[in-house]
Amino acid sequence: MQTQKKYQQLLSFEFYPPKTEEGALNLKGVHQKLAKLKPDFFSVTFGAGGSTRDKTFDTVVKIQEQGVSAAPHLSCVASTKDNIRQMLSSYQQKGITKIVALRGDIPSGMMSAGEFRYANELVDFIRTETGNAFQIHVAAYPEVHPQAKSATEDLRNFKRKIDAGANAAITQYFYNVEAYFYFVDACEKLGIDLPIVPGIMPITNYSQLFRFSDMCGADIPRWMRKGLECFGDDRASIIAFGNEIVTRLCQQLLDYGAPGLHFYTMNQADPTLAILDNLGFGA
Ligand code: FAD
């Protein structure tokens, strides 16, 4: 395991765009609580095929207006170059300077694959159209993307995004610290020298976590699965267990030089705040 302490520590929080008034009100409170930690940015997810296009845009603009940098996720699957061009232009007009550039997944039932096949093509398009107007983050998969032909191919494909002009990466969440550092070392061997920020998923509900992890290829180690299953419906114990495990994961990541932490907040402040409090990031 190599140490990687080369970058200033980054802190970022991810939201999804709320669908209802109630959700928007909740997110406002969550944002206020997390903003006290002075993150580098908040990011807002984007439904593939543009399904959350306006809601992502509105959420990003609201956050940016409140004085913290906001980064929209932008997925290119099922999109045309014109769609993407328009969105880039709208974001530029609002003073947005960061983007999380993704391929996304075609929703079941949607036929059109659009004009982009992979995220490296989107990164290339953003650079061609807008030069250096945006700092571009891309996705990384220390435990290998579920559709990848092999770990080696996946790493090569990750490098394509960096070569196309990405500035940093955020990983899929994981609970095996070794997977992250092995991935970072492998990237270094390929000459990739950019911050690869670990994505952190707090644990609050295990059936949801298991379902989600199966879909996105995140491994839940057996000891964690078994430990969580023991708690049944005892939510307080699940939260305490999750808090302890994820705090320890973050501590190890930071101790060994990870360039920061990106939290998948699921639009909840308290689980993320509890972990950051344990780590000594006071609000
Ligand atoms: P890519 O980098 O294009 O990779 C996808 C697959 O194709 C991989 O298996 C890769 O090995 C392979 N591949 C890549 N390039 C090539 C190539 N040139 N030739 C052949 N094969 C190639 N999804 C959403 O819908 N909305 C979001 O807001 C969102 N946010 C995310 C944020 C983060 C930090 C992460 C880690 C994921 C996020 N996702 C989101 C999920 C993501 O869209 C999916 O994981 C998707 O399946 C892959 O997107 P990607 O950008 O990693 O794709």
In round numbers, the mean pLDDT is: 94
Distance between the termini: 31 Å
- Rounded to an integer in angstroms, the radius of gyration calculated over CA atoms is 18 Å
Tally of structural domains: 1
Instruction: Choose one word for the global shape.
Output: globular
Low-confidence stretches: 1-5
Ions, cofactors and other bound molecules: flavin-adenine dinucleotide
Strand content: 15-25%
Proportion of residues in helical segments: 40-55%
CATH hierarchy: architecture: Alpha-Beta Barrel
Largest sheet, spatial ordering of strands: 1-2-3-4-5-6-7-8
Query: Would you give the CATH topology?
Result: TIM Barrel
The major beta sheet can be summarized as: 8 strands, parallel, barrel
Question: Structural class of the secondary elements?
Answer: alpha/beta
Strand segment count? 8
The number of helical elements comes to 10
Q: Which CATH top level class fits?
A: Alpha Beta
Query: How do the SSEs run, as a string of H and E?
Result: EHEHEHEHEHEHEHHHEH
Describe the structure.
The chain has 283 residues and is an alpha/beta fold. The chain has one domain (10-278): TIM Barrel (Alpha-Beta Barrel), CATH 3.20.20.220. It is 45% helix and 15% strand. The chain has helices at 21-35, 53-65, 81-93, 119-130, 151-163, 177-189, 206-216, 222-229, 235-255, 270-278; strands at residues 10-15, 41-44, 70-75, 98-102, 135-140, 168-173, 196-200, 260-264. It has an eight-stranded parallel barrel, surrounded by four helices. Helix 4 (119-130) runs parallel beside helix 5 and helix 9 packs across helix 10. The longest helix is centred in the last third of the chain and has 21 residues, at 235-255. The chain is globular and about 50 Å long. Residues 1-5 have low confidence and may be disordered. Bound molecules: flavin-adenine dinucleotide (FAD). The site of flavin-adenine dinucleotide (FAD) has 25 residues, from strand 3, strand 4, helix 4, helix 5 and strand 6.
